[in-house]
Write the structure tokens for this entry.
Amino acid sequence: MSAATETILRPSVRRWGGLALAAAVVVGLYVLNEWLWTWLYGSVLGWDLTTGWGSIIHFFSYDVIKITLLLVGIIFAVTVLRSFASIERTRALLGGKREGVGNVLAAGLGVVTPFCSCSAVPAFIGFVAAGVPLGVTMSFLIASPLVNEIAIALLLGLFGVGPTALYVGAGLVIAIVAGLVIGRLKLERYVEPFVFETKLRGKVIDSSVGLTWDDRLAMGREEVASILRKIWPYLLVGIGLGALIHGWAPGDFFARYAGPDNPFGVLIAVLLGVPLYSNAAGILPLVEALHDKGLPMGTLLAFMMATVALSLPEMILLRRVLKPRLIAIFASVTALGIIAVGYLFNAIGI
Amino acid sequence: MHIKILGSGCANCINLEKAARQAVDELGLEATFEKVTDYADIATYNIMRTPGLVVDDEVVLSGRVPTVTHVKELLTAR
């Protein structure tokens, strides 16, 4: 291509052409991934890929590439789509909504609004000070981390549409019900008083207004880079543990202790998951390996939800606006919801 | 010109301050900087995502770290 034709290429052609090319590379690698590693380790190096180290290293390499590609594709798509929503507009939509309708709307918006739990405190103050009821605000704050794009991406890739839909549905129901319960309990006295006294002044800056397509695509690329930078240690540890379980753990080891016949399986999974500080990217490779070893989906989903929805750092942040009793109620109600969903899924045999 | 950086000390706030200082230098403006780290104070500016950039007591940006060029546009637009 000559320099002259290059300058004629319209910016829009370059933008969408580049995007299409990137998408083709990601999809191509995803399709070739398993064949590539089997060829490299099996044919070139001549390893036995069915047992021991050969199986572990093959599984690890394959899973690292597969999960990274899934994350790149889905985080990018979700961030670009989410750039059309904003927390300012979400608050405006929730203002003046009654409990009930408000909780349903808040949980749904919690999934689609761009939000990081590091902003939980300013968002909480912003909602409550603007008159959004406490229970509705809590529905938003529970749904946002509980139903997250990393988990959706990985569940879709590793387990398919069915379990993903169940996870999203269950997460929404937990957030709605927990918010309703907190609203009914009239816990406003356990919110730090300064929150209600906060006077919001100045005009509201809506961060989603005035973005061009180039801005949105750049936000997508930046988000992919920043999330991968943040989660890669969890990812590698999670996939490593998953690979070890895949290659070494005796077939019925986990199923015997935490299988469908153990009535305490879900309870133990949630109690283990709450203090564990990780994210969906670190947990789902483990979940995949444990599922292969016969653990029921309800127990595993409960384990993942407990890990991502309830984290100690977020509780410590929320202490700035919530008194310990409300934090304890928030954590227990959410944990109970997760336990109930786990048992329900196990009972109907997902 | 008085510039406030709103945020509780996360990486984004540090990057925002860097971008703002560079923008001020490149434009040759006189500006004082102040960090607002207390959530109760941040909340009064009506922002729900940190970091936030406040120029002469008016919020001009929140929720993302802008490029230096973008900050320069925000500062000269005033």
User: Anything to note?
Assistant: Chain A touches chain B through 30 residues (CB under 8 Å).
